[in-house]
Amino acid sequence: MSELLSEIFTATSNVYSGWILWNLFLAFIPLVLSFWLFRRKKISRKPTWWLALAVFIAFLPNAPYLLTDIVHLIRGTRAGLSIWAVVLVLIPLHLSAIVGGFAAYVISLINLGYYLRKQGAQRLIVWATELLVHLLCAVGVFMGRFRRFNSWDLVTGPGDVLATTLDDLTSKRPVAVIVLTFIVLTVFYWVMKQITLGLYLRYRFLRMGKEVLE
């Protein structure tokens, strides 16, 4: 029993060595900004709003980026830990982080779609915007995972980011990975969006029923 607890502690320490909490923090930055940008009752597009929008766009790929952190789970299962440490610690923590990060991505885009519809955009425009965001995030995820760029590199080294991105977009293998990532983001987003909206509508229905009873 003591050996199992020691393994679980070791696994937990490895998981929380920094990447999970840090990546989740980066993923929740666009989520928080999306509520301030798109969900307030009175939105004034002042310079601060545009600045926040730029930060939102720059940090948004960090949310779906957590999908690629499945590599850490694969490496963890090969670290020689017992099956119980893997099942009780590694898998739940990794999957929770991945789902949490992608949920932040989905809710952020739902808020963006809400704002666009509020501005009078047609459904086709909202869909096209979502697809464009998926494509841009697919590029961002690739640059982050394989080129190791961060969101703040857009400020500290925009020239390097632009040059590397353009070089990759003219190469077959990076483009193939980006297209595959785009498809995964599109499919996963559609599925989780339906689940999220379904849970939200159920919550509203239950809340309305409670208010009627009161």
TrEMBL record:
What keywords sit in the KW lines? Membrane, Transmembrane, Transmembrane helix
Tell me the domain of life. Bacteria
Q: Which residues cross the membrane?
A: 20-38, 50-67, 79-112, 124-144, 175-201
What species is given as this protein's source? Pegethrix bostrychoides GSE-TBD4-15B
Q: Does the keyword Transmembrane apply?
A: yes
Q: What is this protein called?
A: DUF1361 domain-containing protein
Question: Is the Transmembrane helix keyword given for this protein?
Answer: yes
Pfam families found in the cross-reference section: DUF1361
